[in-house]
Amino acid sequence: MLSANDLVEDPGRIASIVEHTNVDPAATEAEIRTLCQEVRDHDFRAAVVVPYHAPLAAELLGDRATVVAVIGFPYGIQNAPAKVAEAEALLAHVDELDVVMNRTAFANDDHDGVVQDVAAVAKAVGDATLKCIIEAPALSPDEIRTAAALVEEGGADVVKTAVGYDGPTDPADVEAIRAAVDADTGVKASGGISTFEGALEMVRAGATHIGTSSGVEILESIDR
């Protein structure tokens, strides 16, 4: 696992945990081609796209980088069978899936519903890595810890902070997730991260993955 000390010694290694992202619903094919070329040029860990663009990203990246698609996006309000169908339709093109927690179930204290929703998707994806987005900026610290524990119980390999629609992620959000999950469960910080120092703070807080649409800008900000 890449540590903050590793990044201080060799800042360029940040690329190995950056998941370069374009999940704009109006993203064009040209923009996804640019995204994937940037992933290749800078050796980013992954490209993250909406389902429509997953086949193109897979074609462009091959085995050069991980292809990730979002499902249940952006609010997680779809029921479990809908998320499962979405996941199954994508497995031929992606290596990992980022699914949004059922935020409505969570808001109604339906903890079993949250776990069962994630578990259904986890079963469908099998060995593929499943990240689950809890939208931490919209939650209190206690709610963040509860949500993180629930989605981990459901089978999420990585707990992801946010889609970014409810404000930027704070390092305290990452710390709350990290405190609630096992050491071998990953934490993906996403939302408003656009500089190396910002990414470094997330790693210090416990992040193992960085989701950002500003991967190139993060690299360009090193030693600025």
Structure characterization notes:
This protein has one domain: TIM Barrel (Alpha-Beta Barrel). It is α/β, with parallel strands linked by helices and 224 residues long. Strands 1-2-3-4-5-6-7-8 form an eight-stranded parallel β-barrel, surrounded by seven helices. The longest helix has 15 residues, at 111-125. The protein is built from ten helices and eight strands. The model has no long low-confidence stretch (mean pLDDT 97). Helix 2 links the parallel strand 1 (18-22) and strand 2.
Terminal Cα span: 26 Å
Strands across the major sheet, in which order? 1-2-3-4-5-6-7-8
Mean pLDDT: 97
**Poorly predicted residue ranges:** none
Architecture per CATH nomenclature, i.e. the level-2 architecture: Alpha-Beta Barrel
Number of strands: 8
Share in helix = 40-55%
The CATH superfamily is: Aldolase class I
Overall, the morphology is: globular
Largest sheet: 8 strands, parallel, barrel
Strand content: 15-25%
* Oligomerization state: single chain
Q: What's the CATH topology label?
A: TIM Barrel
How many alpha or pi helices? 10
CATH class value: Alpha Beta
Radius of gyration, Cα only, in angstroms? 16 Å
Briefly say what this structure is.
The chain has helices at residues 4-9, 29-42, 54-61, 80-90, 103-107, 111-125, 141-154, 171-180, 196-205, 215-220; strands spanning 18-22, 46-49, 66-71, 96-100, 129-133, 158-160, 186-190, 209-212. By secondary structure, the chain is α/β, with parallel strands linked by helices.
Task: For the structure shown, list the relevant keywords.
8-stranded parallel beta barrel, 224 residues, globular, TIM Barrel, single chain
